[in-house]
């Protein structure tokens, strides 16, 4: 685009050659990947829960009775988002929150029977979603991307505003996918 008199005074005018192409910037690509993953989640899995609600339900299935702070760390969310999401799940009757008798300031979270049934009903959709997201990938390309994503998030975990906390265990390292993922 030719320079016009109106753009000559702008501080960025003429610097286009020093900027990295927006579409090659990792942050932009990760945001787009998240946008696509969420869209495919709703298209394939449905809208009974949000992707974040699914993550909380999934972790509560694996760790029933954990407190909200631990849950937040296990899914790498801030505690406020986890608390408000838990309130929504409780309102939907998918989880229950009980005051922890050992620490009255904490609440223990459990899936209800309805929550377990909903989670079970989502399994096939989540599998289909993964297939959709990787439909144009060879298995080794899919595995390489997943491994590189693990490496990226593991190496940058502490830079996150909501780092993954695994309650004394090490975060899962890159490797073969489990059948239920």
Automatic annotation (TrEMBL):
Signal peptide: none annotated. It holds the Pfam family MarR. GO terms for biological process: response to stress. InterPro entries: HTH_MarR-typ, MarR/SlyA-like, WH-like_DNA-bd_sf, WH_DNA-bd_sf. Residues 15-154 form the HTH marR-type domain. Residues 157-181 are annotated as: Disordered. One of its GO terms (molecular function) is DNA-binding transcription factor activity. PANTHER family: TRANSCRIPTIONAL REGULATOR, TRANSCRIPTIONAL REGULATOR, MARR FAMILY. This is Transcriptional regulator, MarR family. It comes from Noviherbaspirillum humi. The lineage of its organism: Bacteria, Pseudomonadati, Pseudomonadota, Betaproteobacteria, Burkholderiales.
């Amino acid at each position: 685009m030719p320079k016009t008199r109106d753009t000559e005074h702008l501080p960025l005018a003429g610097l286009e050659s020093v900027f990295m192409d927006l579409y090659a910037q990792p942050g932009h690509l990760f945001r787009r990947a998240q946008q696509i993953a969420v869209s495919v989640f709703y298209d394939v899995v449905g809208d009974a829960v949000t992707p974040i609600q699914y993550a909380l339900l999934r972790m509560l299935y694996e760790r029933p009775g954990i407190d909200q702070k631990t849950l937040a760390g296990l899914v790498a969310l801030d505690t406020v988002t986890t608390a408000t999401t838990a309130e929504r799940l409780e309102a939907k009757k998918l989880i229950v929150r009980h005051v922890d008798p050992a620490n009255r300031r904490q609440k223990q979270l459990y899936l209800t029977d309805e929550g377990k049934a909903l989670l079970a009903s989502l399994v096939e959709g989540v599998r289909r979603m993964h297939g959709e997201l990787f439909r144009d990938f060879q298995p080794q390309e899919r595995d390489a991307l997943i491994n590189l994503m693990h490496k990226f998030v593991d190496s940058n975990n502490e830079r996150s505003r909501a780092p993954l906390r695994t309650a004394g265990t090490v975060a899962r390292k890159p490797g073969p996918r489990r059948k239920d993922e």
